[in-house]
């Protein structure tokens, strides 16, 4: 279609001016209301300078068409002749659809933008109070409020005021509005007003003089009865006034609402009385308040009502706020608060969340408030409720680096400006960055990004969010290094006392020792110290995120001392993104993994290899161990090499388990806990089998050369045979031999016994490597029986004397080392015993149940809590395993899937065969996996085996972190364990005992 010449020229000019729909804009310019100015080039240029020229033009036409008779010329004349008015009016119309609607409904309100006096440029609370003075009902208050809001928005979009000044003006307007609402409520109930004194305390962003365009206004109410009035009646009157004030601001009328007034920060929250006396507030804060409540009180400010009562409240709570860091539970409370809760944000919105998302506004605000609480007890210059002012004071006092504070200052201002402009568009409470292209374009242009507004906005936003994401490193930890190493010349440093206070607040139990470690690592002018100064601020944050930061830092110092002269070590941590975080997680998760690492610090290289944490196959392990034994000159040297391989692989397994359970910044924690357990059990069992095979080879070589006089096999039983070994498990085995042709049976038996004794000796020699204990107590006749038997002796015993429990123990028998053919023939021998034809008879079932009941009553350690004992307790490992094994012995003769040594596989096969309903199978599996993880966690944390939860608080917290529980939720962990195992026991009672 050919466009006529005049229109073509207009179309192109509109396009160049930033209109996205030039055709619609041309039609709007042709509107009769704009006839007097449509040809004025100044108007088109001014529209093109707005955030959304299309929206600005539409709003202007609506405003012009709504002008009362005879007033349109005045608007248009002022529009083209007065640049300040033009910029303000069109700037608002191009940035806010909601304020455009307001001007269309109240077309004379544009006049509030005309004046350009000094007071108008920077109005304060008195000016806003005058602007609301004529409002005597909720509807009039809303109209007057929007008129005042219009003037703030105009100054904001034109750049007359910056983001901090905008937030302060919005807080002043909110203060004036609360006063007006209280005035209206008091006028409606003069008898209530006469009986009480009521003070309104602003909290949150309003209290901090940093309010958004649309935000809940958080308040606390303090009331007192006037002289001569009963206190109860006085508080009731104050409560009615406070409730009416909240409704005046919050309720929706024909003019909409102003904003919700939220009083949930009061003592006891929603469950507490809306209004309390001053004495009641003080008593609550002295006895019952939590740390987060004192953090909230940082921003408390008396804004309305009785000024004396409000002042008394502020005077009373201020000392309590600055003593909060000395409270007994301050550190765990802070650690809980530091783990920002984003679980309630829908996954699709996390990346668009300006406030609560990673690198969002809440991160900055929380960090600043925490540092205020820690250091403000001894430095009154930090007593500010405004985030940016407090950040400036922290930098001036040396509590954070000036350059870091400046970066965070810029990032916070940018994010707040984005938040303001997003909310201004429709005056809706939101913190989500829009997804629509046109919305992003308007937002970018409103932020002064005009060339490629969407791309430039996204780039700037991501850059600033990245700065905020690293703020804990910048704000909390880098100043600690300054305190010991003077990183930045001329900076004011943290005093040792302030550094200790900060470390204590971040979870370090021994701040003095932590500072000594930091000084040892980071002091000096060497290249090593320089790299450490780069790494430590990040590592300290990861250590603080664990249950034992002190252990993490101490372990890092030990590893660094051991490897400090190795050129690859620090380079690995600096250049391989995952290595440093993986090391921090491993060092601070408990004793076992660091102990393994310290015995061979070079294993830290595994943490930087993407494949380094994957378990190695049984074949690869056995090949390496056998090669090491073959090269050794003595049996002792050969087994020492095998145990060295075992130590390295134990570290690989523990590190992978810890990192998979904790998660990292780039990879969340493994959600399939069953897969984690299977991976650990399989890796440990393969490793133990390879080590036993190596010890067997060494023992044979040292005494008999290449050939033992008897064929010899090691059969794994219990958790070893079931591929379910834990970190603290012994290797349960049976030994079987078969004399070679022509060898006397006694000579063969003696040779077999010699080999066993030598294997045990070699595997338990005192070295730096953890010993491997071999337990043969599950053999026929137990400890009273011979340590090793021939295959024919086993056959004779099982044929004549075997008890039901011995057949049950054989369910998890599997060859693990030695003569493969002999091992296979042993399995052929025992299969009819463990998978009896036609299943078990009633007598055998009764015997198994009797043994289980006896074990429950006799073997549980004295004083142990049966609801928390992972092995023998209610719904624990023994309950699940005996239930599954009973099903195997009853049905494996017809169900091949049940012929497995692995508990979870057998349970899944029983479910697949219809022997266990889905819900009950899931309940048993969940309980078994949880109990196994608890046992593994105890060993990882304490460095020694245990079947129940630790009693020491820090160890218990570390077990909780491994299991995925946040700091301070160990009670929830124990409750969950009891609930899950209680459900499992109910299934066991039904399936095993037939209850």
Q: How does this structure look, described?
A:
With 995 residues, the protein is mostly helical. It contains 45 helices and ten strands. Strands 1, 2, 3, 4 and 5 form a five-stranded mixed sheet that branches. Strands 6, 7, 8, 9 and 10 form a five-stranded mixed sheet that branches. α36 (745-763) links the parallel β7 (731-739) and β8. α2 packs parallel to α4. The N and C termini lie far apart (86 Å). Mean pLDDT is 92; it is low at 1-6.
Q: How far is the N terminus from the C terminus?
A: 86 Å
List the total number of helices: 45
Structural class: mainly alpha
Shape: elongated
> What's the total count of β strands?
10
Question: What's this model, at a glance?
Answer:
By secondary structure, the protein is mostly helical.
